[in-house]
Amino acid sequence: FVLFVGVIYIHLVLALDGGVEMFADRQSTSTRTVPAPVAEQSLYNLDPSLASVITANRHGHPNVFGLLKERELGSAFRFRSKAYVFQKPRYVPARGGACDHPLARYNARIFCGQFSTDGSMFMTASQDRRVRLYDEHWRLRKQIVAREVGWSVLDVEHSPDQRFVAYSGWADSVYLCNVHGEAEMHDALLMNPDPGHFCLFSLKFSPDSNEIIGGSCDDALYVYDLNRRQLALRVVGHKNDVNTVCYLDAHSNQLIVSGSDDCLVKVWDRRTLDASSSAASAVGVMVGHLQGVTHVCSRNDGRYFISQGKDQCIKLWDLRKMSSSADGEQHSRPSYDYRYATLPPSRRRHAHDNSLMSYRGHEVSRTLVRAYFSPESTTAQRYIYSGSSDGKIYIYDAVTGEIVRQIEGHSDIVRDLSWHPELPMLVSTSWDGRMYGWEVAAEQGGAAAARPKRLRVQEPEPVESDEEDDDHDDEDYVMEFEVDDDDADEAGDADAPHVAAWQQQLGELFASYIDALRSGAQDDDDDSSSATE
Question: How far apart, in whole angstroms, are the C-alpha atoms of residue 337 and residue 313?
Fold first, then answer.
C-alpha cells in the first residue's frame, strides 16, 4: 500500500510540474517585448498580449504538420505541444491595433503587396512605377524605379533565397533586381523575342530560385532559366490571356498551375514539356469556373490549391480530381468584360464542376483580385483570405466555407494582401493608395488568451473502506481543476480547453492506479479486504 501511494504521489507531482511548466512558459513569453525604434511603427509593435505567440513562433514551437511528421517517424510528442498548436487557429486578424493608421500612403493605386517568405521584408508595386521594399520596422529600405512597364507594375515577386526581386508589366522583358549589396543590379530578362504588344500578368520564382514562370497576354506560359539567362520554355496552352501561374509544391519545380480567361485551370508537368515545341498538352484540367480565372494559389503540398474567378467565387481543387483536356475545352464558357461591370452573385454551378468547395461573398471586378491560404505555422492553413472590389477583406473557413471575418477599412479595391508567415498580422494594399496592417482582436485571442491562469487542485473526497463500497464509481477519484474567480474574470474562457484536457488526463491517470490497486487486491483473496483498506 505504501509503495502504491508513493508511486501515485511521484507521478502526480511530475504531471503537475509539467502543467506548471507549460503555463510558466506561456507566462514568461507573454512578458517579453520586442524592441522597436522610438517614434517608428514596427512590424512587431503589436498588442503586447501577442508577444507570447510571436516569441513562440520565432523559437520554433511545433505546428500541426510538424507533430504529424513526428508521429510518422515514430517519435512521441508532449501534451503541451498539442495544446500550443490547437490554440493557434484563434489568432485571426480582425482589427487595426498598432496599425490604426496606414502603414504607407501613396498617390497612386497599389497593385501588389507581399511579405517575403521569411517575413523579414514587405514589398509593394504601384501605378507610379515604383517597387518599394520595407524592413520589419516599416522603414523604406529600397525603392526601385521600374523600366518599360507601361501604365503600371502588374506583379512583383521575391525569390525564396531572399536575394532577388522580379517585376513585370506591359513590356517584352521581366526585370530582375538585387535586394542586398551596394552594387545595383537591374537586368532585363527577355521573354518575348518578337517585339510587340506583350505583357506578363503574373510571375513566380521556382522553389529553388533557379527559374521564373509567367502567364502572358498571348495565351502562353513562359519558363525562364536564371542560370543560363535564357528562355527555356514557351507553351501555348490556353485560348485566352493567362492571368496567373504558380508552383504546386514548395519543394519541387515539376508541377505548375495556370489560370486563364478561358475559364480553365490547367496543371502542367515540366517533365512532359518539350522545349522544341510551343504546343503541349496539360496533364489535367480543372473545370468549374463560369468566368475567367484571376489568381491561383497553392497549399504547397503538391495536392491542393485554390483559384479566384471573375464569377465571384473561390474554388478549392484536389489534384487527384482532374478532368481530361478534351472535357475541359468542351465545357469552357466565354468571359465577360469585368472591367466595366460586376457580375451579379449567383449560385449557378457548372455542369461538370470538379472542385471540392466554393467560397462566395466577396466581389471581383475591374482588376485581378487575389486570394491565398493562411500561413501554415500560425493557422495550419485553416483559412482562405481574399481581397475584394468592395474594399473589404474576406477570411473564409477552408472546411465549412463560412466567412470568419469581414474586415472594412479601405475605400477602393483591395487587389492584393498578405498574411505574415509567423505573426497574427495581415497587411492589405488597395487602389485607394493605402497600405493597412490588421492584427488579432482582443476578444478572440488577445489579452485573455495570452495570459495564463493560476490553477488550484481540489483533492478528491475520501472513500469509505467498507466492502460494500468496493464497486464505487471511478468518478470519486477524478482530479478536478478549478480556476480562481478573480482569474476567470480576468482571463475569460481562453484557457478552458487546456483545463479540461489536463483534468481528463490526470483523471484517467488516477483511475488507472485505482484499477491497479483492485487487481492487486483480488490476487490476495483472503487479504483483499485489508489490502483495499
Answer: 16
Selection from 252, 248, 267, 158 nearest residue 203 by Cα: 158
Q: Cα–Cα distance between 350 and 3 in angstroms, integer?
A: 70
274 — pLDDT class (breaks 50, 70, 90) = confident
Give exposure, 393-410, as e/b (b: 16+ Cβ within 10 Å).
bbbbbbeeeeebbebebb
CB environment 56-69: b (16+ within 10 A), e (fewer): bbeeebbbbebbee
d(CA 88, CA 329) in angstroms, rounded, equals: 43
CB atoms within 10 A of CB 459: 7
What one-character-per-residue DSSP string does 462-505 give? P----GGGTT--GGGG--EEEE-HHHHHHHTTTTHHHHHHHHHH
pLDDT tens for 119-171 read 999 999 999 999 999 998 899 999 999 998 888 999 999 999 999 999 999 99
**d(C-alpha 10, C-alpha 218), whole Å:** 73
- In terms of Cβ atoms closer than 10 Å to its own Cβ (0-12, 13-18, 19+), residue 26 is buried
Within 8 A by CB and 6+ apart from 164, the residues are: 158, 176, 177, 178, 179, 205, 209
Residues 6 or more apart whose CB falls under 8 angstroms from that of 454 comprise 483, 484, 487
517 against 430, higher pLDDT: 430
Q: Please name which of 199, 228, 225, 223 lies closest in space to residue 213, comparing C-alpha atoms.
A: 223
For residue 453, give the amino acid letter: K
Q: How far apart are CA 531 and CA 514, in angstroms?
A: 12
List 294's β-bridge partners, or say none: none
Task: Count CB neighbours of 194 within 10 A.
Answer: 7
436's grid cell: 493597412
Taking each helix axis from N to C terminus, what angle separates 496-523 and 2-30, rounded to the nearest 10 degrees?
170
Least trusted range by pLDDT, from 23-32, 170-179, 438-447, 471-480: 471-480
3-state secondary structure of 100: coil
Give the Cα separation of 230 and 174 in Å (integer). 12
